[in-house]
Amino acid sequence: MIEFSLQKTRHGANGQLQLDVAATLAAGSFTVLSGASGAGKTTLLRLLAGLEAADSGWLQVNGADWLRGGHSLPVQQRRIGMVFQDYALFPHLSVADNIAFGAARGERALVQELLDLCGLAALARQHPAQLSGGQKQRVALARALAMRPTLLLLDEPLSALDHGLRRELQRMLRDMHQRFALTTVMVSHDLGEIFAVADQVLQLEHGRIGAQGTPAQVFLQTPRDSSRIALHGEVLACQPADVMWRVTVLVAGELVEVLLSAQDAATLSAGQRIRLSAGALQPG
Amino acid sequence: MSGLDLAPLWLTFRLAATTTLLLLLLGLPLAAWLAHSRSRLRPLVDTLVAMPLVLPPSVLGFYLLLALSPANAPGAWLRELFGVNLVFSFAGLVIGSVLFSLPFMVQPVAAALSGLPPSLREAAWTMGKSRLSTLLRVELPCVRPALVAGVVMSFAHTVGEFGLVLMIGGNIPGVTRVASIAVYNEVEALNYPAAHAYAAILCAFSFAVVLLVNLLRRRAERIA
After folding, report:
1. Assembly ipTM
2. Where is the ABC transmembrane type-1 domain (chain B) (predicted)?
Protein backbone atom coordinates (compact mmCIF):
# COMPACT_ATOMS: atom_id res chain seq x y z
CA MET A 1 0.00 0.00 0.00
CA ILE A 2 1.21 3.47 -0.87
CA GLU A 3 0.00 6.45 1.10
CA PHE A 4 1.12 10.00 0.62
CA SER A 5 0.45 13.64 1.15
CA LEU A 6 2.83 15.74 -0.89
CA GLN A 7 3.19 19.47 -1.42
CA LYS A 8 5.42 21.27 -3.85
CA THR A 9 5.48 24.67 -5.51
CA ARG A 10 7.14 24.85 -8.87
CA HIS A 11 7.68 27.53 -11.42
CA GLY A 12 7.33 26.15 -14.91
CA ALA A 13 6.62 27.28 -18.45
CA ASN A 14 2.90 27.47 -17.61
CA GLY A 15 3.44 29.70 -14.59
CA GLN A 16 3.38 28.64 -10.99
CA LEU A 17 2.06 25.24 -9.98
CA GLN A 18 1.09 24.52 -6.41
CA LEU A 19 0.89 20.78 -6.10
CA ASP A 20 -0.96 19.48 -3.06
CA VAL A 21 -2.05 15.87 -3.40
CA ALA A 22 -2.93 13.18 -0.88
CA ALA A 23 -4.04 9.67 -1.83
CA THR A 24 -3.85 5.99 -0.98
CA LEU A 25 -3.00 3.42 -3.63
CA ALA A 26 -3.77 -0.21 -2.80
CA ALA A 27 -0.96 -2.74 -3.20
CA GLY A 28 -1.24 -4.35 -6.62
CA SER A 29 -3.36 -1.53 -8.06
CA PHE A 30 -2.83 0.09 -11.44
CA THR A 31 -3.34 3.84 -11.10
CA VAL A 32 -3.34 6.35 -13.93
CA LEU A 33 -2.56 10.01 -13.30
CA SER A 34 -4.48 12.06 -15.83
CA GLY A 35 -5.23 15.71 -16.35
CA ALA A 36 -4.33 18.63 -18.60
CA SER A 37 -0.67 19.37 -19.28
CA GLY A 38 0.79 21.45 -16.47
CA ALA A 39 -1.62 19.93 -13.92
CA GLY A 40 1.26 18.30 -12.06
CA LYS A 41 1.11 14.67 -13.24
CA THR A 42 4.79 14.27 -14.02
CA THR A 43 5.81 16.27 -10.94
CA LEU A 44 3.80 13.93 -8.72
CA LEU A 45 5.39 10.91 -10.40
CA ARG A 46 8.87 12.36 -9.83
CA LEU A 47 8.06 13.08 -6.18
CA LEU A 48 7.04 9.43 -5.74
CA ALA A 49 10.30 8.35 -7.42
CA GLY A 50 12.43 10.67 -5.27
CA LEU A 51 13.78 12.44 -8.35
CA GLU A 52 12.41 15.70 -6.98
CA ALA A 53 12.20 16.91 -3.41
CA ALA A 54 8.83 17.81 -1.90
CA ASP A 55 8.50 21.09 0.01
CA SER A 56 6.57 19.25 2.68
CA GLY A 57 4.53 16.11 3.23
CA TRP A 58 5.10 12.42 3.77
CA LEU A 59 5.18 9.21 1.76
CA GLN A 60 4.85 5.68 3.04
CA VAL A 61 5.26 2.57 0.89
CA ASN A 62 4.33 -0.85 2.29
CA GLY A 63 4.89 0.43 5.82
CA ALA A 64 8.31 1.97 5.12
CA ASP A 65 8.83 5.71 5.34
CA TRP A 66 10.17 7.11 2.08
CA LEU A 67 9.57 10.67 3.19
CA ARG A 68 8.88 11.84 6.71
CA GLY A 69 9.84 14.85 8.74
CA GLY A 70 12.05 16.23 5.98
CA HIS A 71 14.03 13.00 5.75
CA SER A 72 13.81 11.52 2.27
CA LEU A 73 14.94 8.05 1.23
CA PRO A 74 17.37 8.52 -1.70
CA VAL A 75 16.05 7.48 -5.10
CA GLN A 76 18.74 4.76 -5.26
CA GLN A 77 17.26 2.98 -2.24
CA ARG A 78 13.60 3.16 -3.22
CA ARG A 79 13.64 0.14 -5.54
CA ILE A 80 11.35 1.63 -8.13
CA GLY A 81 11.12 0.78 -11.77
CA MET A 82 10.77 3.88 -13.89
CA VAL A 83 9.97 4.20 -17.57
CA PHE A 84 10.71 7.65 -18.98
CA GLN A 85 8.88 9.42 -21.77
CA ASP A 86 12.06 9.48 -23.90
CA TYR A 87 12.87 5.86 -22.84
CA ALA A 88 16.32 6.95 -21.51
CA LEU A 89 18.02 3.83 -22.85
CA PHE A 90 21.80 3.81 -22.42
CA PRO A 91 23.05 4.29 -26.00
CA HIS A 92 26.44 2.64 -25.39
CA LEU A 93 24.98 -0.62 -24.06
CA SER A 94 23.29 -3.47 -25.93
CA VAL A 95 19.66 -4.35 -25.27
CA ALA A 96 20.69 -7.19 -22.93
CA ASP A 97 23.19 -4.98 -21.08
CA ASN A 98 20.61 -2.22 -20.71
CA ILE A 99 18.27 -4.68 -19.02
CA ALA A 100 21.05 -6.23 -16.93
CA PHE A 101 22.24 -2.77 -15.79
CA GLY A 102 19.69 -2.56 -12.99
CA ALA A 103 19.57 -6.26 -12.16
CA ALA A 104 21.31 -7.58 -9.08
CA ARG A 105 24.24 -9.98 -9.47
CA GLY A 106 23.03 -13.51 -10.06
CA GLU A 107 19.85 -12.35 -11.81
CA ARG A 108 20.96 -13.61 -15.21
CA ALA A 109 17.87 -15.84 -15.42
CA LEU A 110 15.59 -12.86 -14.81
CA VAL A 111 17.29 -10.86 -17.57
CA GLN A 112 16.75 -13.75 -19.99
CA GLU A 113 13.14 -14.13 -18.84
CA LEU A 114 12.48 -10.44 -19.45
CA LEU A 115 14.09 -10.61 -22.89
CA ASP A 116 11.75 -13.50 -23.74
CA LEU A 117 8.63 -12.00 -22.18
CA CYS A 118 9.08 -8.70 -23.99
CA GLY A 119 9.89 -10.35 -27.31
CA LEU A 120 13.43 -8.99 -27.31
CA ALA A 121 15.47 -12.20 -27.39
CA ALA A 122 16.38 -11.75 -31.06
CA LEU A 123 17.46 -8.14 -30.41
CA ALA A 124 19.61 -8.82 -27.32
CA ARG A 125 22.90 -7.82 -29.01
CA GLN A 126 21.53 -4.74 -30.80
CA HIS A 127 22.10 -1.20 -29.60
CA PRO A 128 19.25 1.25 -28.90
CA ALA A 129 19.99 3.34 -32.00
CA GLN A 130 19.10 0.32 -34.16
CA LEU A 131 15.64 -0.17 -32.60
CA SER A 132 12.18 1.11 -33.55
CA GLY A 133 10.07 3.13 -31.12
CA GLY A 134 8.03 0.16 -29.98
CA GLN A 135 11.13 -1.97 -29.47
CA LYS A 136 12.79 0.81 -27.42
CA GLN A 137 9.68 1.01 -25.31
CA ARG A 138 9.79 -2.72 -24.58
CA VAL A 139 13.47 -2.49 -23.61
CA ALA A 140 12.66 0.40 -21.25
CA LEU A 141 9.91 -1.64 -19.62
CA ALA A 142 12.04 -4.77 -19.31
CA ARG A 143 14.89 -2.71 -17.84
CA ALA A 144 12.57 -1.13 -15.27
CA LEU A 145 11.46 -4.60 -14.14
CA ALA A 146 14.97 -6.05 -13.89
CA MET A 147 15.56 -4.82 -10.36
CA ARG A 148 12.33 -6.43 -9.16
CA PRO A 149 10.68 -3.15 -8.14
CA THR A 150 7.72 -2.95 -5.80
CA LEU A 151 6.53 0.20 -7.49
CA LEU A 152 6.52 0.76 -11.25
CA LEU A 153 6.30 4.37 -12.43
CA LEU A 154 5.60 5.21 -16.08
CA ASP A 155 5.68 8.72 -17.53
CA GLU A 156 3.49 8.72 -20.67
CA PRO A 157 5.36 5.67 -21.91
CA LEU A 158 3.31 5.10 -25.05
CA SER A 159 2.66 8.66 -26.19
CA ALA A 160 5.12 8.51 -29.10
CA LEU A 161 3.74 5.27 -30.58
CA ASP A 162 1.06 4.64 -33.18
CA HIS A 163 -2.32 3.22 -32.33
CA GLY A 164 -1.72 -0.47 -33.08
CA LEU A 165 1.53 -0.59 -31.13
CA ARG A 166 -0.11 1.15 -28.22
CA ARG A 167 -2.75 -1.55 -27.88
CA GLU A 168 -0.12 -4.27 -28.00
CA LEU A 169 2.05 -2.58 -25.37
CA GLN A 170 -0.93 -1.85 -23.13
CA ARG A 171 -1.60 -5.59 -23.03
CA MET A 172 2.04 -6.21 -22.21
CA LEU A 173 1.96 -3.61 -19.42
CA ARG A 174 -1.09 -5.21 -17.91
CA ASP A 175 0.50 -8.70 -18.13
CA MET A 176 3.70 -7.56 -16.46
CA HIS A 177 1.77 -5.71 -13.79
CA GLN A 178 0.11 -8.97 -12.81
CA ARG A 179 3.04 -11.33 -13.33
CA PHE A 180 5.42 -9.27 -11.16
CA ALA A 181 2.75 -8.31 -8.59
CA LEU A 182 3.50 -4.62 -9.09
CA THR A 183 1.86 -1.50 -7.83
CA THR A 184 1.87 0.68 -10.93
CA VAL A 185 1.41 4.41 -11.41
CA MET A 186 1.28 5.70 -14.98
CA VAL A 187 0.86 9.18 -16.42
CA SER A 188 -1.50 9.16 -19.40
CA HIS A 189 -4.17 11.27 -21.00
CA ASP A 190 -5.30 8.83 -23.63
CA LEU A 191 -8.81 7.73 -22.65
CA GLY A 192 -8.61 4.44 -24.56
CA GLU A 193 -5.37 3.64 -22.79
CA ILE A 194 -6.76 4.53 -19.39
CA PHE A 195 -9.76 2.23 -19.85
CA ALA A 196 -7.48 -0.53 -21.14
CA VAL A 197 -5.08 -0.60 -18.20
CA ALA A 198 -6.23 1.32 -15.14
CA ASP A 199 -8.06 0.17 -12.01
CA GLN A 200 -8.04 3.66 -10.63
CA VAL A 201 -7.70 7.20 -11.97
CA LEU A 202 -6.43 10.26 -10.15
CA GLN A 203 -7.41 13.25 -12.22
CA LEU A 204 -5.28 16.28 -11.41
CA GLU A 205 -6.47 19.83 -11.92
CA HIS A 206 -4.06 22.68 -11.17
CA GLY A 207 -2.06 20.55 -8.76
CA ARG A 208 -4.99 19.09 -6.85
CA ILE A 209 -7.07 15.94 -7.23
CA GLY A 210 -10.15 16.95 -9.22
CA ALA A 211 -11.68 13.50 -9.49
CA GLN A 212 -10.79 10.03 -8.28
CA GLY A 213 -12.26 6.60 -8.94
CA THR A 214 -12.46 3.91 -11.59
CA PRO A 215 -12.08 5.12 -15.19
CA ALA A 216 -15.85 4.79 -15.64
CA GLN A 217 -16.58 6.83 -12.53
CA VAL A 218 -14.22 9.59 -13.55
CA PHE A 219 -14.86 9.85 -17.26
CA LEU A 220 -18.40 8.65 -18.04
CA GLN A 221 -20.70 11.56 -17.51
CA THR A 222 -23.86 9.90 -18.85
CA PRO A 223 -26.18 8.21 -16.31
CA ARG A 224 -25.05 4.72 -15.42
CA ASP A 225 -28.24 2.97 -16.62
CA SER A 226 -28.37 4.75 -19.98
CA SER A 227 -27.91 2.70 -23.10
CA ARG A 228 -26.95 5.81 -25.03
CA ILE A 229 -23.38 7.01 -25.34
CA ALA A 230 -22.26 10.62 -25.31
CA LEU A 231 -19.33 11.77 -27.41
CA HIS A 232 -17.74 15.17 -26.96
CA GLY A 233 -16.43 16.89 -30.05
CA GLU A 234 -15.79 20.06 -31.94
CA VAL A 235 -17.67 21.33 -35.00
CA LEU A 236 -15.28 21.84 -37.89
CA ALA A 237 -17.63 22.85 -40.72
CA CYS A 238 -21.34 23.18 -41.68
CA GLN A 239 -22.17 22.91 -45.39
CA PRO A 240 -25.49 22.71 -47.22
CA ALA A 241 -26.14 19.35 -48.94
CA ASP A 242 -29.41 19.37 -50.94
CA VAL A 243 -32.19 20.09 -48.46
CA MET A 244 -30.10 19.05 -45.44
CA TRP A 245 -26.89 20.39 -43.87
CA ARG A 246 -23.72 18.32 -43.59
CA VAL A 247 -21.91 18.99 -40.26
CA THR A 248 -18.33 17.77 -39.82
CA VAL A 249 -17.38 17.02 -36.23
CA LEU A 250 -14.02 16.04 -34.73
CA VAL A 251 -14.50 13.38 -32.05
CA ALA A 252 -11.49 11.85 -30.31
CA GLY A 253 -9.26 12.43 -33.31
CA GLU A 254 -11.78 10.97 -35.79
CA LEU A 255 -13.91 12.90 -38.29
CA VAL A 256 -17.64 12.27 -38.13
CA GLU A 257 -20.24 13.63 -40.57
CA VAL A 258 -23.77 14.22 -39.40
CA LEU A 259 -26.78 15.26 -41.52
CA LEU A 260 -29.01 17.85 -39.87
CA SER A 261 -31.98 19.92 -40.86
CA ALA A 262 -31.28 23.54 -41.79
CA GLN A 263 -33.03 24.56 -38.61
CA ASP A 264 -30.78 22.44 -36.36
CA ALA A 265 -27.64 23.35 -38.32
CA ALA A 266 -28.34 27.06 -37.85
CA THR A 267 -27.56 26.71 -34.12
CA LEU A 268 -24.03 25.39 -34.85
CA SER A 269 -20.89 27.16 -35.95
CA ALA A 270 -17.30 26.08 -36.61
CA GLY A 271 -15.20 25.79 -33.45
CA GLN A 272 -18.19 25.11 -31.20
CA ARG A 273 -17.92 22.32 -28.60
CA ILE A 274 -20.85 19.91 -28.82
CA ARG A 275 -22.06 16.57 -27.47
CA LEU A 276 -23.10 13.83 -29.86
CA SER A 277 -25.48 11.18 -28.56
CA ALA A 278 -25.78 7.79 -30.17
CA GLY A 279 -28.15 5.02 -29.20
CA ALA A 280 -27.09 2.00 -31.16
CA LEU A 281 -23.84 0.11 -31.18
CA GLN A 282 -23.02 -2.46 -33.82
CA PRO A 283 -20.04 -4.79 -33.94
CA GLY A 284 -17.44 -3.28 -36.31
CA MET B 1 70.69 14.97 -36.15
CA SER B 2 72.93 12.32 -34.61
CA GLY B 3 73.89 14.62 -31.76
CA LEU B 4 70.33 15.66 -30.91
CA ASP B 5 69.69 15.47 -27.18
CA LEU B 6 66.47 13.46 -26.78
CA ALA B 7 66.11 14.29 -23.07
CA PRO B 8 63.87 17.36 -23.68
CA LEU B 9 61.50 15.26 -25.83
CA TRP B 10 61.30 12.51 -23.24
CA LEU B 11 60.77 15.10 -20.48
CA THR B 12 58.02 16.75 -22.52
CA PHE B 13 56.29 13.42 -22.96
CA ARG B 14 56.53 12.64 -19.23
CA LEU B 15 55.18 16.10 -18.32
CA ALA B 16 52.28 15.88 -20.78
CA ALA B 17 51.37 12.33 -19.73
CA THR B 18 51.45 13.15 -15.99
CA THR B 19 49.46 16.33 -16.55
CA THR B 20 46.82 14.54 -18.62
CA LEU B 21 46.47 11.77 -16.04
CA LEU B 22 46.04 14.28 -13.21
CA LEU B 23 43.55 16.24 -15.33
CA LEU B 24 41.48 13.09 -15.78
CA LEU B 25 41.39 12.59 -12.01
CA LEU B 26 40.69 16.24 -11.13
CA GLY B 27 39.06 17.58 -14.28
CA LEU B 28 36.33 14.99 -14.78
CA PRO B 29 34.69 15.44 -11.35
CA LEU B 30 35.00 19.20 -11.86
CA ALA B 31 33.39 18.92 -15.32
CA ALA B 32 30.55 16.84 -13.86
CA TRP B 33 30.03 19.41 -11.12
CA LEU B 34 29.99 22.28 -13.63
CA ALA B 35 27.55 20.42 -15.88
CA HIS B 36 25.00 19.66 -13.15
CA SER B 37 25.46 22.06 -10.25
CA ARG B 38 22.94 24.77 -9.49
CA SER B 39 25.26 26.34 -6.93
CA ARG B 40 25.76 30.10 -6.94
CA LEU B 41 29.48 29.45 -7.10
CA ARG B 42 29.15 27.80 -10.50
CA PRO B 43 29.62 30.94 -12.67
CA LEU B 44 32.69 31.85 -10.60
CA VAL B 45 34.26 28.40 -10.96
CA ASP B 46 33.33 28.35 -14.65
CA THR B 47 35.18 31.64 -15.12
CA LEU B 48 38.25 30.53 -13.17
CA VAL B 49 38.50 27.33 -15.21
CA ALA B 50 38.37 29.34 -18.45
CA MET B 51 40.92 31.95 -17.31
CA PRO B 52 44.01 30.16 -18.69
CA LEU B 53 42.49 30.49 -22.18
CA VAL B 54 42.95 34.27 -22.14
CA LEU B 55 45.62 34.83 -19.51
CA PRO B 56 49.20 35.21 -20.79
CA PRO B 57 51.04 32.08 -19.63
CA SER B 58 53.76 34.26 -18.15
CA VAL B 59 51.21 35.86 -15.80
CA LEU B 60 50.03 32.52 -14.45
CA GLY B 61 53.67 31.42 -14.24
CA PHE B 62 54.63 34.59 -12.37
CA TYR B 63 51.96 34.10 -9.70
CA LEU B 64 52.78 30.43 -9.35
CA LEU B 65 56.46 31.29 -9.01
CA LEU B 66 55.60 33.66 -6.17
CA ALA B 67 53.21 31.21 -4.53
CA LEU B 68 55.53 28.22 -4.67
CA SER B 69 58.72 30.08 -3.73
CA PRO B 70 60.00 29.15 -0.27
CA ALA B 71 60.33 32.89 0.37
CA ASN B 72 56.54 33.16 0.51
CA ALA B 73 53.96 31.58 2.81
CA PRO B 74 52.52 28.73 0.65
CA GLY B 75 55.94 27.64 -0.60
CA ALA B 76 57.48 27.87 2.88
CA TRP B 77 54.61 25.84 4.27
CA LEU B 78 55.07 23.15 1.61
CA ARG B 79 58.78 22.97 2.40
CA GLU B 80 58.15 22.74 6.13
CA LEU B 81 55.44 20.11 5.85
CA PHE B 82 56.65 17.90 3.00
CA GLY B 83 60.24 19.02 2.63
CA VAL B 84 59.69 19.87 -1.05
CA ASN B 85 60.65 22.87 -3.07
CA LEU B 86 58.37 23.10 -6.09
CA VAL B 87 60.02 26.00 -7.87
CA PHE B 88 62.39 24.92 -10.67
CA SER B 89 61.31 21.29 -10.26
CA PHE B 90 59.37 18.77 -12.33
CA ALA B 91 56.57 18.67 -9.72
CA GLY B 92 56.22 22.44 -9.99
CA LEU B 93 55.92 22.14 -13.76
CA VAL B 94 53.16 19.55 -13.34
CA ILE B 95 51.16 21.83 -11.04
CA GLY B 96 51.48 24.72 -13.48
CA SER B 97 50.57 22.55 -16.48
CA VAL B 98 47.50 21.11 -14.77
CA LEU B 99 46.18 24.61 -14.07
CA PHE B 100 47.12 25.84 -17.52
CA SER B 101 45.49 22.96 -19.43
CA LEU B 102 42.45 22.70 -17.16
CA PRO B 103 39.98 24.30 -19.63
CA PHE B 104 41.03 21.94 -22.42
CA MET B 105 39.89 18.95 -20.40
CA VAL B 106 37.02 20.46 -18.43
CA GLN B 107 35.20 22.55 -21.02
CA PRO B 108 34.47 19.97 -23.76
CA VAL B 109 33.52 17.31 -21.24
CA ALA B 110 31.31 19.67 -19.21
CA ALA B 111 29.56 20.88 -22.37
CA ALA B 112 28.92 17.32 -23.54
CA LEU B 113 27.68 16.19 -20.12
CA SER B 114 25.22 19.06 -19.80
CA GLY B 115 23.93 18.20 -23.31
CA LEU B 116 22.90 14.68 -22.26
CA PRO B 117 19.20 14.16 -21.51
CA PRO B 118 18.70 14.34 -17.71
CA SER B 119 16.64 11.15 -17.87
CA LEU B 120 19.80 9.11 -18.56
CA ARG B 121 21.30 9.81 -15.13
CA GLU B 122 17.91 9.63 -13.47
CA ALA B 123 17.30 6.20 -14.99
CA ALA B 124 20.62 4.99 -13.57
CA TRP B 125 19.74 6.40 -10.14
CA THR B 126 16.41 4.58 -10.10
CA MET B 127 18.40 1.42 -10.77
CA GLY B 128 20.31 1.96 -7.54
CA LYS B 129 23.49 3.45 -8.99
CA SER B 130 25.30 6.18 -7.03
CA ARG B 131 26.20 9.50 -8.63
CA LEU B 132 29.83 8.42 -9.06
CA SER B 133 28.87 5.07 -10.53
CA THR B 134 26.40 6.81 -12.87
CA LEU B 135 29.13 9.22 -14.00
CA LEU B 136 31.59 6.41 -14.70
CA ARG B 137 29.23 3.84 -16.19
CA VAL B 138 26.66 5.96 -18.02
CA GLU B 139 27.59 9.61 -18.48
CA LEU B 140 31.27 9.39 -19.42
CA PRO B 141 30.78 6.51 -21.90
CA CYS B 142 28.04 8.61 -23.53
CA VAL B 143 30.40 11.56 -24.05
CA ARG B 144 33.37 9.49 -25.24
CA PRO B 145 34.19 11.75 -28.24
CA ALA B 146 34.41 14.82 -25.97
CA LEU B 147 36.48 12.84 -23.49
CA VAL B 148 38.94 11.74 -26.17
CA ALA B 149 39.12 15.31 -27.49
CA GLY B 150 39.79 16.56 -23.94
CA VAL B 151 42.59 14.04 -23.39
CA VAL B 152 44.26 14.72 -26.74
CA MET B 153 43.99 18.50 -26.46
CA SER B 154 45.25 18.57 -22.85
CA PHE B 155 48.23 16.43 -23.80
CA ALA B 156 48.98 18.56 -26.88
CA HIS B 157 48.50 21.86 -25.08
CA THR B 158 50.97 20.77 -22.38
CA VAL B 159 53.49 19.87 -25.09
CA GLY B 160 53.05 23.38 -26.50
CA GLU B 161 53.62 25.27 -23.24
CA PHE B 162 56.46 27.74 -23.09
CA GLY B 163 55.98 30.87 -21.00
CA LEU B 164 54.60 29.13 -17.95
CA VAL B 165 57.32 26.47 -17.98
CA LEU B 166 60.05 29.05 -18.35
CA MET B 167 58.68 31.06 -15.42
CA ILE B 168 58.32 28.31 -12.85
CA GLY B 169 60.73 25.74 -14.22
CA GLY B 170 63.52 27.69 -15.79
CA ASN B 171 65.81 25.84 -18.16
CA ILE B 172 67.45 23.01 -16.22
CA PRO B 173 68.58 20.13 -18.49
CA GLY B 174 66.82 16.87 -17.64
CA VAL B 175 64.61 18.52 -15.01
CA THR B 176 62.65 21.34 -16.61
CA ARG B 177 64.08 21.78 -20.11
CA VAL B 178 61.14 20.60 -22.20
CA ALA B 179 61.11 20.58 -26.02
CA SER B 180 59.70 24.08 -26.46
CA ILE B 181 62.37 25.49 -24.14
CA ALA B 182 65.01 23.45 -25.95
CA VAL B 183 64.12 25.20 -29.25
CA TYR B 184 64.57 28.57 -27.56
CA ASN B 185 67.81 27.42 -25.94
CA GLU B 186 69.32 26.17 -29.21
CA VAL B 187 68.42 29.41 -31.00
CA GLU B 188 70.05 31.42 -28.23
CA ALA B 189 73.15 29.28 -28.68
CA LEU B 190 72.93 29.81 -32.46
CA ASN B 191 72.69 26.03 -32.91
CA TYR B 192 70.15 26.21 -35.73
CA PRO B 193 70.24 22.56 -36.88
CA ALA B 194 69.19 21.35 -33.42
CA ALA B 195 66.52 24.08 -33.18
CA HIS B 196 65.23 22.94 -36.60
CA ALA B 197 65.05 19.35 -35.46
CA TYR B 198 63.09 20.13 -32.28
CA ALA B 199 60.81 22.56 -34.14
CA ALA B 200 60.09 20.05 -36.92
CA ILE B 201 59.24 17.31 -34.42
CA LEU B 202 56.84 19.64 -32.58
CA CYS B 203 55.25 20.71 -35.90
CA ALA B 204 54.67 17.11 -36.98
CA PHE B 205 53.28 16.25 -33.56
CA SER B 206 50.86 19.21 -33.56
CA PHE B 207 49.66 18.38 -37.05
CA ALA B 208 49.02 14.77 -36.07
CA VAL B 209 47.11 15.81 -32.94
CA VAL B 210 44.79 18.27 -34.66
CA LEU B 211 44.18 15.78 -37.47
CA LEU B 212 43.33 13.09 -34.92
CA VAL B 213 40.88 15.35 -33.07
CA ASN B 214 39.18 16.31 -36.34
CA LEU B 215 38.87 12.68 -37.43
CA LEU B 216 37.40 11.74 -34.05
CA ARG B 217 34.93 14.59 -34.26
CA ARG B 218 33.81 13.55 -37.73
CA ARG B 219 33.38 9.97 -36.60
CA ALA B 220 31.35 11.10 -33.60
CA GLU B 221 29.12 13.21 -35.86
CA ARG B 222 28.58 10.25 -38.18
CA ILE B 223 27.50 8.05 -35.28
CA ALA B 224 25.18 10.69 -33.80
Report:
1. 0.80
2. 9-213
